[in-house]
Structure formats: C-alpha cells, structure tokens
Amino acid sequence: MYHVTAYDNEGKKLLDEPLQAESDAEAREKGLSLLAEKEYLQLPYRIVHTSGRLVAFNSHKGKGPQ
Q1: Using an 8 Å Cβ cutoff, are 31 and 4 in contact?
Q2: Residue 65 pLDDT more than 50?
Q3: Which of 2, 4, 48, 60 falls 20 to 30 Å from 24 in CA-CA distance?
Q4: Are strands 54-58 and 13-19 parallel, antiparallel or unpaired?
Q5: How far is the C-alpha of 45 from the C-alpha of 11, rounded, in Å?
Q6: Over the chain, what is the mean pLDDT?
Q7: Secondary structure percentages of the chain, helix, strand, coil, to 5
C-alpha cells in the first residue's frame, strides 16, 4: 500500500489519498498520473510506501524575498 500527498506552496494539504500498487514503479506511475490529472505536479508532493519508503518526491521551492 502506498500514499500520495500534495501541498500548496504555503504547506496546505491539497491531496491525501491511498494508492494501491504492486511495486514502487507502479506506485510512482499511478501517483504521478494522479498528480498530473489534478495539475499538482509543479507543487510539493510525495509518494510513499506505508513502511515509510519514499517513492517520489518534489520539494517545496521556497519563497523569494518579500
């Protein structure tokens, strides 16, 4: 079992869904497809196995000076 989570640039959770897959590769493919469908690929996200193993990750880019 895997889990996909996406955040806006302020850290608010936008997506938090379980993901059924047989392998890390399948979880990555399904997770990235879901993120693309929701137009969240440019935002911070993570796809993890329930054991805590990180499958895919896009970090927060940080804010520029205000």
Answers
A1: yes
A2: no
A3: 60
A4: unpaired
A5: 10
A6: 91
A7: 20, 35, 45
